[in-house]
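ingest -> fold -> write
write: protein_1
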Amino acid sequence: MSEALKDSTGADVHVDLDEQGQSYVITVEDGKVAGHAYFLPGPETERIFYHTVVDEAFGGRGLSKVLVAQALADSREKGVTVVPVCLLFVKKLNETGDDYVAEGGRFRKATGADIDLVKREA
């Protein structure tokens, strides 16, 4: 994944999938990890995104927006259904969900069972 991206200051950032760590990781220009979008694998080909965090030292650069957008784009490309529990993912899909689906992405609203899974596993 790791394509060259820019934050709101114009600095290079990268987003990579860490399957083992069950997160998408955003790094800044010097390779420092700035944040994560954590997920749990759901049934079949689903990812339940439950928490996104960017270190406050990197605040104000729009990194969480880049991170969420790239996690959604990669999930779309891989045919993974997104289940948003994290409020950043919920907000993004509320705003752009129709476009996401039109581009081939799949998502569904979180159920009580999804939230129970997050409480048990995360």
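write: protein_2
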Amino acid sequence: MTEQKPEADVAGLSYEEAREQLIAVVGRLEAGGASLEESLALWERGEALAARCEEWLEGARKRLAAAPGSKAGIDPGR
């Protein structure tokens, strides 16, 4: 059996899917009770999910900045 990397299936997730899965991972980590190995796997999965969310948000910022009528110099992240 081959071990799959935590980010392997994250690339195809929508922002909402990645965010919901990230919330679930954080909840499981906060609840405690997981073994060290499971906690590390959850942490790695959470990192991959957070990166996917950031990709979506950065893409949205770029689209907003490029939209007709957008004001140059305004940070769309605010």
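write: annotation protein_2
The chain is about 60% helix and 0% strand.
The radius of gyration is 16 Å.
pipeline exit 0
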